[in-house]
Amino acid sequence: MYIYQKLRQNPDLTAALLLAMVTSLIAPPGLNEIIPRINLPLLGLLLFLMCIVAGLRLSGFFAAIFQQVFHGSASGRPLGRFFIFSCYFSSMFITNDVALIIFVPLAIMVFTEARRIRLIVPTVCWQTIAANLGSMLTPIGNPQNLFIYSHYGLEPSEFLAITAPIVLISGAAIYLATFSLPDCDVTLPQQPDNTLPWRKIIPLLLLFSLCLLHVVHLLDFPLLAIIVIPAIALLNNRLYKEADYKLLLLFALLFIGVGNLSHIEFFQSWPAKMLSGHEFWVSLLLSQLLSNVPATVLLANYTTAYTPLLLGVNIGGLGTIIASMASVISFKAYLQTRFSKPGYYLLTFTASNLAVLILLLLYYHFYMTYGGILTQHLYTAIQ
Question: How confident is the model at residue 109 (pLDDT cuts 50, 70, 90)?
Answer without folding.
Answer: confident
